[in-house]
Amino acid sequence: MPIFIPLVIGIIAVSFSSIFVKWSQAPVSVQGMYRLLFTLLLMLPFVWKQFAYMRKISNKDAVLLFLSGTFLALHFLFWMGSLKLTTVASSTILLSLQPVFVMVGAYIAFREKTSKAAMNGMIVAITGAIMIGWGDIGISIQHIQGDILSILGTIVVAVHMLIGQKLLKTLPATLYSFIVFLTAVIVFAVYNIFLEIPMTGYPDKEWGIFLLLAIIPTVFGHVLFNWLLKYVTAATISMAILGEPVGASLLAYLLIGETLSFTQWLGGAIVLTGLYYFLQNTRKQKKDKPLAPIKNPVTAGPIMKKG
Predict the structure, then answer these.
(1) pTM of this prediction exceeds 0.90
(2) I need a surface site. Which of 1, 229, 248, 260 has the fewest CB within 10 A?
(3) Domain spans of the chain?
(4) Nearest to 126 by CA among 288, 274, 305
(5) pLDDT tens for residues 173-207?
(6) Is the dihedral of CA 93, 69, 33, 215 positive or negative?
(7) SS in 3 state form for 14-47?
(8) Cβ atoms 150, 91 nearer than 8 A
(9) pLDDT value at position 169?
């Protein structure tokens, strides 16, 4: 199965994340905690057989797993918080700057270089992403606070992905995701207890949103991207996520009435063009590296074709 198929599925899935966050009235730390807790419950039947592998994890890797989970929790806290203060387009455009931080971090940590052609694709895609959010980037104090939170969320998720790229060279993808999500749940729980944020007593609608956040953008988004890190670089995943502002802005227009200007529609087309160009050139760079058999990101078993 071509790699671009799970990439597209992941982009569509994460595009729903901002809509669900907007629909919820619960504090973002509660949303993030239950989003990941429900994801853990969904993964448990498929990952428990890998628990024996945990004894092989070195102390260094254990620390990196803790840091990865902590940075993931911070990402959700910052980015989901930004959606309460600014528009979907503004928040996701700033989040789409993630490849810049990932590329810099990958060069510093792994001396990972990007071709000039791929760099051009990145520039085109980021230019289009800026056009998407241009009409919604606010000048009020509230919007500025939201923009700052989104930038912080972008930085910490880039660190999370780079740590994941290192750990997934030796750890099974599903076990990595499970441990990182569990760590993030614990971080959220401590945060909620410390700030005395209620973790129970929410209406049925909120619990439904928590479950949707777990199934759609987390399992078919983040878990899928974690798995893909075994076959492509963190920079490639970050570039793929540039498709999120397109999907999220379109969904925001259709579902919550956030309008889009002509410039934003044009920016969406430019993002997709730059994204395609980048991925094509990244694939050429890795053409000599054979891909491992495709496995299901949740079960870690082979994906079966439907007849």
Answers:
(1) no
(2) 1
(3) 4-114+138-230
(4) 274
(5) 889 989 999 999 999 999 999 999 999 999 999 99
(6) positive
(7) HHCHHHHHHHCCCCHHHHHHHHHHHHHHHHHHHH
(8) yes
(9) 86
